[in-house]
Amino acid sequence: MRFTTTAVAAAAASCTSTAIAYTPADTSGTDQLAAQGLANLKAYEKTANFTCSTETAHRREKKEYIDAVLCLQSKPAISGALAPGAKSRYDDFVATHINQTLTIHGTANFLTWHRYFVQTYETALRNECSYTGYQPYLNWGQLALDPLNAPVFSGDSTSMSGNGAYVNHSGAGVPSNETPFITVPPGQGGGCLTSGPFANMTVNHGPISPALPSSLVPSNPQPDGLGHNPRCLRRDISTWAARTNLQDRNSTELIVENGEIGKFQTVMQGLFAQGLLGVHTAGHFLVGGDPGGDLFASPG
């Protein structure tokens, strides 16, 4: 499968063994739906081999993907005056998401736009950084009970780095800290990454709607968040978001109980005033931090 959400364009990931005991949670519901979907796709296209997930990738494949992302982060930006803070091709994608956030969320084009966005990102990894694989997806349900010990966040060389260092903060309001219909409790992180391939990553865009307080995340020199604002990548992995909204049953019920596309994507994105975070928003706050908890700059 090549489809993923906004949060995974930057946090789509890999898995590997870890010294800490970790047992993936049951995902039989979505596994069955995925198998049915793949069978339908194969019948339609006659050829299909879209099985690239964080749990099925081999160490070599994970390393190739990570190297390609790091490569994209090393190539000069092409956004120019549209995003003066962009310093890399990776930043170009973040800037594109920032510029279009208000027209691609809570709208009818949400799914279509993000599929195209991820496909374009995958194409850049292939054409500009010689990547030969596919954009992997993160099966949230497998790590929902114990995300902190999930291999994808182990902090080793084939993970997507670990949690951020612990810093004291009060959690994050959804949809914003100014209008907190829902409060995501603080986790065990919130600080800069200290391990793994992205420990030295520099975030250049945002914040626009930060999940962390201004004492931790400096303001951008431009109101639109597209100015140059270099800082570390922060992460606050949320066991709360995972256990309450990302278990396999959450995704299974979303698909099975919402057959009409309008209702499906509304429930998926979250009904905040009703206290429903939704699997999409919960995916953001599974990683949290900065810019992961920022609706606008989250791919960064």
From TrEMBL:
UniProt keyword Oxidoreductase, yes or no: yes
Domain Tyrosinase copper-binding: start-end pairs: 105-122
UniProt keyword terms in alphabetical order: Metal-binding, Oxidoreductase
An MF annotation (GO) of this entry: oxidoreductase activity
Protein name: Tyrosinase copper-binding domain-containing protein
Cross-referenced PROSITE patterns: PROKAR_LIPOPROTEIN, TYROSINASE_1
